[in-house]
C-alpha cells in the first residue's frame, strides 16, 4: 500500500505572466527533486480528475463557481485581483487541483493509500467561499474536507496550514463548522493582513513576528497545535502545505529551514498515528523560490511516506 502522489499536466498550463512568482515551473522543480531523491519510487502516481460542480459547491457558493468559469478568457488574461490572473487554462488547472484533493480523500478513506501529497496549482487557501484572491481560485483543501465530511460522513477533520500567509479562505469557509479544527501558523503583518483575531472556537491561529525562526515555530507547534489536535482527535488530517516560510523564500521572513518541514511533518504524523491510523492528505500551497521549495517538499514528503 504505497502513498499517493497526485498531480496533472493541466496544472502547469495555468500561468499569470512571465514574472509571476506562482509559476508553472514550481511543479516541475518539485517532481524533479522527488525523483532525484528516489522518493517517487515509494509512491503511486495518480492523474488528478476534474472536480465536479457538486464537489466545488460544498465549499463554494455555486454562483461563484459559475461566475469564475464564465470569466475564463479565450485568450490573454482576465484579472481577478492585482496579483491574480486567469489565462485560458486556469479553470481546467483549478478543477484538477480541487479534484486532486477529492481523489486523495477517496483513496485515503477507502484505505487504498495511507497518505497523499497533491502537487497541484493554482493553490487554494486564500480562496474564500465566494472570492478568488491571492493566486487562488478554488480552495482545494476545503473541497477535499467537505467531501470527507459530507460524502464520506466523517465527523472530525483537522486542517493544518503552515504557509507563511494566513489561510483566510479556509477560515472563511470553515468558521462555524465545528466538524473542522483549523490550526494555522503564519507571519504577522503579511498578506492577507488578517488572522490575528480568532473568528471562532474551531480556529487555532498563531501569528508569529518576522524572524521568529525555527525555535519559535517549533514551540508554537508543540505547545499550541499538538495539544489542540490531541483534544480534538481528528479522524483525518489535511495540510495546507505552503513552503514560503523558508528563509530562502523572499515572500516571507519567518526564517524556517528544510529540516523544519521534516520536523513539523513528523509531529503531525505522530498525531495522525494516535488518532486516525496515520491518515494525512497534504496539498501544495505557496513556496516560490524553486530550489528551497523543491527541497522543502522533499523533506515533507519523505516523512509523509514513512521513508524518514
Ligand atoms: Zn503563502
Automatic annotation (TrEMBL):
Residues covered by the Histone deacetylase domain: 20-304
UniProt-listed Pfam families: Hist_deacetyl
Family annotation (InterPro entries): HDACs (IPR000286), His_deacetylse_dom (IPR023801), His_deacetylse_dom_sf (IPR037138), Ureohydrolase_dom_sf (IPR023696)
Annotated transmembrane regions: none
Family of the protein in this entry: Belongs to the histone deacetylase family.
Name of the protein described by the UniProt record: Histone deacetylase family protein
Organism: Rhodoferax mekongensis
